[in-house]
Backbone:
């Protein structure tokens, strides 16, 4: 199992990924300490709709934090394909054919590795959020509220990443990277067609008055329901993730047994 996990770590170029993230954290933390929210610079301060001062640099850092969240989730989404591609190029499948007892461990290692990556990235994002909130302007209006909202949405975002992996791992393991990519692109195209249809024929008035301020107000009005969703989403997602593993392990053993 440990060998499988280390092989996947090499497949995603884990050392380079962690080094890049570490360098970014050092740069982000240094800049955040140099430009705290309480340091109101001329020309970089404005007033929101409630009359509260807003540091423009706070806006920059919080928006950067949101981009980090999206980047982490996107990066995790690409790990499955990289792992599958690495396995197809190596002789790991021939090794498993000679040792049938290792087949279930092989499948389990993929699910465990992706789960560990999600946990590590979620922890890193929380650390980044703590740094950001430590230096943000107290009572900083909607920017502070948006920062808190990001933290609230982080767990559902990473839960979505786990759910996507639960769908992708069976495809890549059972069909191979080539066929799995065709299926993945097909699903994305279907989703894209739905978005185009909605833009052409849907009721766009629903989003007419929506901005960051309205999003924060909506979150505050539905605080109980949002909190319940945030608490529940990891449990539901992990249950589906485990069910995906059990199903994939059985199908993988049957497939390899038939080929062997």
Residues:
């Amino acid at each position: 199992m440990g060998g499988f996990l280390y092989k996947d770590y090499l497949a995603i170029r884990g050392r380079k990924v962690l080094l890049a993230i570490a360098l970014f954290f050092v740069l982000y933390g240094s800049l955040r300490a140099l430009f705290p929210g309480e340091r109101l610079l001329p020309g970089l301060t404005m007033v929101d709709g409630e009359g509260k001062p807003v540091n423009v640099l706070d806006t920059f850092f919080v928006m950067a934090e949101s981009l980090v969240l999206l980047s982490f989730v996107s990066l995790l989404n690409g790990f499955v394909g990289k792992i599958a591609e690495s396995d197809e190029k190596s002789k790991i499948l021939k090794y498993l054919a000679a040792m049938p007892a290792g087949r279930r461990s092989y499948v389990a290692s993929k699910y465990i590795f992706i789960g560990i990556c999600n946990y590590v990235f979620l922890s890193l994002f929380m650390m980044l959020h703590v740094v950001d909130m430590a230096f943000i302007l107290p009572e900083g209006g909607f920017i502070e509220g948006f920062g808190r909202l990001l933290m609230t949405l982080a767990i559902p975002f990473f839960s979505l990443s786990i759910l996507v992996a639960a769908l992708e791992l069976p495809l890549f393991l059972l069909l191979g990277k080539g066929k799995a990519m065709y299926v993945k692109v097909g699903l994305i195209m279907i989703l894209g067609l739905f978005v185009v249809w909605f833009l052409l024929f849907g009721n766009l008035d629903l989003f007419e008055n929506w901005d960051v301020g309205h999003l924060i107000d909506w979150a505050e009005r539905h605080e109980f329901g949002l909190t319940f969703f945030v608490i529940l989403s990891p449990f539901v997602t992990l249950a589906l993730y485990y069910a995906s593993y059990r199903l994939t392990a059985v199908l993988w053993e049957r497939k390899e047994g038939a080929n062997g």
Remarks:
- The chain has a mean pLDDT of 79.
- The chain has one domain: 2-259.
- Residues 136 and 144 are 7 Å apart (CA to CA).
